[in-house]
Prior knowledge:
By secondary structure, this protein is an all-alpha fold. It is about 80% helix and about 0% strand. Helix 3 runs parallel beside helix 6, helix 3 packs parallel to helix 10 and helix 8 runs antiparallel to helix 10. The N terminus and C terminus are likely disordered.
Amino acid sequence: MSQRDGPPSGESGLSPNRRWLMDAVYPLIALAFVVVAWSLVTNVLQPPAYIIPSPGDVLDELVARWDELFNNMVSTARTALLGLLLSGVLGISAGFAIARSKTLDRLLMPPIIVTQSIPKIALAPLFVVWFGFGIVPKLIVVVLVTVFPVLIATRVGVSSVQRSTLALVRSMGLRSTALVRKVLLPASAPHLAGAFRVSASLALIGSIIAEYVGSSEGIGVVLLTSIGTQNTALTFAAILLSSLTGSLIYLAATAFTHIATIGLNPSYMEVQT
């Protein structure tokens, strides 16, 4: 019996449910190691609480100020999700337009690339001056942080469709909307899946950055306030809650892109065959 015909070994032989369980367990093990190491540092070295609080102090702060932290986290997450949705719409639309037009590609891509080298936190105060305090400047920052991966992925995916495929589907009578839905969007789906996960991981960061300079609510405001008052336990609690929320957004984006890719690819495969 050849090696290929032998029984599967390692994680490749696990059932999907077991593999999913292992994927969930590994991060928990890593988190446990971090907490243990953190506890050892605070117990052995005993640094001042305003430098490194103990895990117990952080947990106490998290419980005592849960309502405040939760409400501010909801505000930050709401801005992040809305900005992520807008960046998806804008990135896909612009990516399609640029990929289908060499003129737009040459005209728009250079300034788009240049904007990525500008620190977004430097632009945030300008947006506050232009649009005032509120959700608009925060949304703009989130979109600027998250739209680029989506745009590039769409551009690459649409450009990857061969001209022979386009000629074939046009000969079958597909035009405009049907062409996008049955060919171009499915071809871009694998690229968009990875890009959207990257953007999802950046969305919360963009929202917090925007709150640093132009907001009266949000977890970014809590972070600034706690740092200013040297309440490091509250800072750690806000960071912990932000990390958990960011992980949930990333997992939700991963599930969404997985379902969307499976739903879109069959129509593309039908055309290819």
